[in-house]
Amino acid sequence: xxxxxxxxxxxxxxxxxxxxxxxxxxxxxxxxxxxxxxxxxxxxxxxxxxxxxxxxxxxxxxxxxxxxxxxxxxxxxxxxxxxxxxxxxxxxxxxxxxxxxxxxxxxxxxxxxxxxxxxxxxxxxxxxxxxxxxxxxxxxxxxxxxxxxxxxxxxxxxxxxxxxxxxxxxxxxxxxxxxxxxxxxxxxxxxxxxxxxxxxxxxxxxxxxxxxxxxxxxxxxxxxxxxxxxxxxxxxxxxxxx
Length: 242
Hints:
With 242 residues, the protein is α+β, with helices and mostly antiparallel strands. It has helices at 2-14, 16-50, 64-71, 84-91, 119-123, 150-156, 205-211, 229-234, and strands spanning 103-108, 111-116, 125-126, 130-131, 134-137, 145-148, 163-164, 184-190, 200-204. Helices cover 37% and strands 16% of the residues.
Protein backbone atom coordinates (compact mmCIF):
# COMPACT_ATOMS: atom_id res chain seq x y z
CA UNK A 1 0.00 0.00 0.00
CA UNK A 2 2.81 2.40 0.91
CA UNK A 3 4.45 1.74 -2.46
CA UNK A 4 1.23 2.65 -4.27
CA UNK A 5 0.84 5.84 -2.25
CA UNK A 6 4.47 6.74 -2.87
CA UNK A 7 4.02 6.16 -6.61
CA UNK A 8 0.85 8.29 -6.64
CA UNK A 9 2.59 11.09 -4.77
CA UNK A 10 5.53 11.07 -7.18
CA UNK A 11 3.09 11.15 -10.09
CA UNK A 12 1.37 14.20 -8.61
CA UNK A 13 4.70 15.95 -8.07
CA UNK A 14 5.61 15.35 -11.68
CA UNK A 15 2.37 17.06 -12.75
CA UNK A 16 2.28 19.98 -10.30
CA UNK A 17 1.01 22.46 -12.86
CA UNK A 18 -1.95 20.42 -14.08
CA UNK A 19 -2.83 19.34 -10.51
CA UNK A 20 -2.88 22.95 -9.28
CA UNK A 21 -5.02 23.99 -12.25
CA UNK A 22 -7.45 21.16 -11.54
CA UNK A 23 -7.72 22.10 -7.87
CA UNK A 24 -8.23 25.74 -8.82
CA UNK A 25 -10.97 24.83 -11.30
CA UNK A 26 -12.75 22.68 -8.71
CA UNK A 27 -12.50 25.45 -6.10
CA UNK A 28 -13.87 28.04 -8.54
CA UNK A 29 -16.72 25.74 -9.54
CA UNK A 30 -17.71 25.15 -5.91
CA UNK A 31 -17.46 28.87 -5.14
CA UNK A 32 -19.61 29.71 -8.18
CA UNK A 33 -22.20 27.13 -7.21
CA UNK A 34 -22.36 28.40 -3.64
CA UNK A 35 -22.56 32.00 -4.88
CA UNK A 36 -25.45 31.26 -7.24
CA UNK A 37 -27.26 29.31 -4.54
CA UNK A 38 -26.78 32.16 -2.05
CA UNK A 39 -28.02 34.71 -4.59
CA UNK A 40 -31.08 32.58 -5.32
CA UNK A 41 -31.80 32.18 -1.62
CA UNK A 42 -31.31 35.90 -1.05
CA UNK A 43 -33.64 36.77 -3.93
CA UNK A 44 -36.28 34.43 -2.54
CA UNK A 45 -35.94 35.93 0.93
CA UNK A 46 -35.97 39.45 -0.50
CA UNK A 47 -39.18 38.72 -2.38
CA UNK A 48 -40.74 37.17 0.73
CA UNK A 49 -39.81 40.21 2.82
CA UNK A 50 -41.15 42.60 0.18
CA UNK A 51 -44.50 40.95 -0.45
CA UNK A 52 -46.29 38.01 1.16
CA UNK A 53 -49.70 36.42 0.91
CA UNK A 54 -49.64 36.84 -2.87
CA UNK A 55 -49.55 33.74 -5.04
CA UNK A 56 -49.78 35.13 -8.59
CA UNK A 57 -48.70 38.26 -10.44
CA UNK A 58 -50.43 38.79 -13.77
CA UNK A 59 -49.32 41.20 -16.47
CA UNK A 60 -49.11 41.68 -20.20
CA UNK A 61 -46.80 39.27 -22.09
CA UNK A 62 -43.22 39.93 -20.96
CA UNK A 63 -40.39 38.17 -19.18
CA UNK A 64 -41.25 36.82 -15.74
CA UNK A 65 -38.22 38.51 -14.17
CA UNK A 66 -39.12 41.85 -15.77
CA UNK A 67 -42.70 41.57 -14.50
CA UNK A 68 -41.47 40.75 -10.99
CA UNK A 69 -38.99 43.63 -10.89
CA UNK A 70 -41.53 46.08 -12.27
CA UNK A 71 -44.55 45.19 -10.15
CA UNK A 72 -42.89 44.29 -6.84
CA UNK A 73 -39.56 46.10 -6.73
CA UNK A 74 -40.58 49.15 -8.85
CA UNK A 75 -37.59 48.61 -11.15
CA UNK A 76 -37.66 48.98 -14.91
CA UNK A 77 -40.69 49.72 -17.03
CA UNK A 78 -43.65 47.75 -18.28
CA UNK A 79 -43.37 46.59 -21.89
CA UNK A 80 -47.16 46.56 -22.26
CA UNK A 81 -50.38 46.90 -20.28
CA UNK A 82 -53.49 44.79 -19.88
CA UNK A 83 -56.89 46.24 -20.63
CA UNK A 84 -59.34 47.04 -17.85
CA UNK A 85 -61.92 44.48 -19.15
CA UNK A 86 -59.18 41.82 -19.06
CA UNK A 87 -58.36 42.70 -15.46
CA UNK A 88 -62.05 42.52 -14.53
CA UNK A 89 -62.34 39.15 -16.21
CA UNK A 90 -59.38 37.84 -14.21
CA UNK A 91 -60.62 39.35 -10.93
CA UNK A 92 -64.05 37.72 -11.26
CA UNK A 93 -62.79 34.22 -11.97
CA UNK A 94 -64.11 31.71 -9.39
CA UNK A 95 -60.59 30.48 -8.63
CA UNK A 96 -59.32 34.00 -7.81
CA UNK A 97 -59.82 35.04 -4.17
CA UNK A 98 -58.83 38.68 -4.65
CA UNK A 99 -57.00 40.92 -7.10
CA UNK A 100 -55.55 44.41 -6.84
CA UNK A 101 -54.71 46.37 -10.02
CA UNK A 102 -51.59 48.53 -10.22
CA UNK A 103 -50.28 50.94 -12.82
CA UNK A 104 -46.83 52.54 -12.90
CA UNK A 105 -45.14 54.93 -15.30
CA UNK A 106 -45.07 58.39 -13.70
CA UNK A 107 -42.80 59.76 -10.98
CA UNK A 108 -42.34 62.52 -8.44
CA UNK A 109 -38.84 63.89 -7.88
CA UNK A 110 -37.26 60.50 -8.53
CA UNK A 111 -39.86 58.40 -6.68
CA UNK A 112 -42.18 56.04 -8.54
CA UNK A 113 -45.89 56.83 -8.69
CA UNK A 114 -48.28 53.89 -8.56
CA UNK A 115 -51.96 53.97 -9.39
CA UNK A 116 -54.11 51.45 -7.55
CA UNK A 117 -57.31 51.11 -5.51
CA UNK A 118 -57.95 51.49 -1.75
CA UNK A 119 -58.06 47.70 -1.57
CA UNK A 120 -54.27 47.77 -1.99
CA UNK A 121 -53.79 49.04 1.57
CA UNK A 122 -55.87 46.15 2.92
CA UNK A 123 -54.44 43.36 0.79
CA UNK A 124 -50.75 44.18 0.52
CA UNK A 125 -48.66 42.20 3.03
CA UNK A 126 -44.91 42.21 3.60
CA UNK A 127 -42.43 40.36 5.77
CA UNK A 128 -44.21 37.75 7.86
CA UNK A 129 -47.68 38.62 6.65
CA UNK A 130 -47.53 42.13 8.12
CA UNK A 131 -50.12 44.72 7.13
CA UNK A 132 -49.45 48.16 5.74
CA UNK A 133 -50.09 50.82 8.38
CA UNK A 134 -50.99 54.42 7.61
CA UNK A 135 -49.02 56.20 10.32
CA UNK A 136 -50.55 59.59 9.55
CA UNK A 137 -53.70 60.59 7.72
CA UNK A 138 -55.90 58.21 5.76
CA UNK A 139 -56.15 56.38 2.41
CA UNK A 140 -56.84 58.45 -0.70
CA UNK A 141 -60.48 59.33 -1.25
CA UNK A 142 -60.57 62.36 -3.51
CA UNK A 143 -59.34 62.27 -7.13
CA UNK A 144 -56.13 64.16 -6.41
CA UNK A 145 -55.22 62.59 -3.07
CA UNK A 146 -51.89 60.79 -2.56
CA UNK A 147 -50.57 58.38 0.07
CA UNK A 148 -46.79 58.39 0.26
CA UNK A 149 -44.21 55.98 1.63
CA UNK A 150 -42.07 56.73 4.66
CA UNK A 151 -38.91 57.44 2.62
CA UNK A 152 -40.76 59.87 0.35
CA UNK A 153 -42.04 61.82 3.36
CA UNK A 154 -38.67 61.86 5.10
CA UNK A 155 -36.47 62.77 2.13
CA UNK A 156 -38.81 65.41 0.70
CA UNK A 157 -39.97 66.76 4.06
CA UNK A 158 -43.64 66.15 3.28
CA UNK A 159 -46.46 66.07 5.79
CA UNK A 160 -50.24 65.84 5.59
CA UNK A 161 -51.68 68.37 3.08
CA UNK A 162 -48.30 68.98 1.42
CA UNK A 163 -48.85 69.74 -2.29
CA UNK A 164 -47.06 67.68 -4.92
CA UNK A 165 -46.84 67.69 -8.71
CA UNK A 166 -46.33 64.43 -10.59
CA UNK A 167 -44.15 64.09 -13.66
CA UNK A 168 -44.78 62.16 -16.85
CA UNK A 169 -42.31 59.31 -17.06
CA UNK A 170 -39.33 58.59 -14.81
CA UNK A 171 -36.38 60.59 -13.61
CA UNK A 172 -35.45 63.41 -11.29
CA UNK A 173 -36.07 66.32 -13.67
CA UNK A 174 -39.32 67.35 -15.27
CA UNK A 175 -38.05 68.76 -18.60
CA UNK A 176 -41.49 70.19 -19.31
CA UNK A 177 -43.28 66.91 -18.68
CA UNK A 178 -44.83 67.67 -15.28
CA UNK A 179 -48.55 67.60 -14.59
CA UNK A 180 -48.40 70.97 -12.83
CA UNK A 181 -51.94 71.83 -13.91
CA UNK A 182 -53.31 68.99 -11.74
CA UNK A 183 -51.48 69.04 -8.39
CA UNK A 184 -52.03 66.44 -5.68
CA UNK A 185 -52.03 66.74 -1.92
CA UNK A 186 -50.68 64.30 0.64
CA UNK A 187 -53.49 62.72 2.68
CA UNK A 188 -51.63 59.76 4.16
CA UNK A 189 -48.12 58.67 5.13
CA UNK A 190 -47.34 54.98 5.52
CA UNK A 191 -45.28 53.57 8.36
CA UNK A 192 -41.81 52.30 7.35
CA UNK A 193 -41.77 48.78 5.89
CA UNK A 194 -38.21 48.35 4.62
CA UNK A 195 -39.64 47.57 1.17
CA UNK A 196 -40.09 49.53 -2.10
CA UNK A 197 -43.44 50.70 -0.67
CA UNK A 198 -41.45 53.24 1.37
CA UNK A 199 -40.30 54.89 -1.87
CA UNK A 200 -43.64 54.92 -3.66
CA UNK A 201 -46.30 57.58 -4.16
CA UNK A 202 -49.74 55.92 -4.23
CA UNK A 203 -52.67 57.49 -6.06
CA UNK A 204 -55.93 56.17 -7.47
CA UNK A 205 -56.21 54.61 -10.91
CA UNK A 206 -58.75 57.29 -11.77
CA UNK A 207 -56.15 59.93 -10.91
CA UNK A 208 -53.69 58.31 -13.32
CA UNK A 209 -56.32 58.62 -16.04
CA UNK A 210 -57.17 62.21 -15.05
CA UNK A 211 -53.63 63.59 -15.17
CA UNK A 212 -53.15 62.10 -18.64
CA UNK A 213 -56.12 63.88 -20.16
CA UNK A 214 -54.40 65.71 -23.03
CA UNK A 215 -51.52 63.20 -23.11
CA UNK A 216 -53.32 60.55 -25.16
CA UNK A 217 -50.66 60.56 -27.89
CA UNK A 218 -47.84 60.12 -25.37
CA UNK A 219 -46.86 63.79 -25.54
CA UNK A 220 -48.47 66.81 -23.94
CA UNK A 221 -51.19 68.47 -25.98
CA UNK A 222 -50.68 72.28 -25.98
CA UNK A 223 -54.32 72.64 -24.95
CA UNK A 224 -53.99 70.28 -21.96
CA UNK A 225 -53.42 73.13 -19.49
CA UNK A 226 -56.63 74.81 -20.58
CA UNK A 227 -58.74 71.86 -19.43
CA UNK A 228 -60.01 72.76 -15.98
CA UNK A 229 -60.10 70.37 -13.01
CA UNK A 230 -63.89 70.52 -13.04
CA UNK A 231 -63.92 69.46 -16.69
CA UNK A 232 -61.52 66.61 -15.97
CA UNK A 233 -63.70 65.38 -13.12
CA UNK A 234 -66.67 65.28 -15.48
CA UNK A 235 -64.89 62.91 -17.86
CA UNK A 236 -65.26 59.15 -17.78
CA UNK A 237 -62.17 58.32 -15.69
CA UNK A 238 -62.69 54.57 -15.73
CA UNK A 239 -59.21 53.06 -16.20
CA UNK A 240 -58.55 51.74 -19.69
CA UNK A 241 -55.45 49.75 -18.83
CA UNK A 242 -53.50 48.62 -15.75
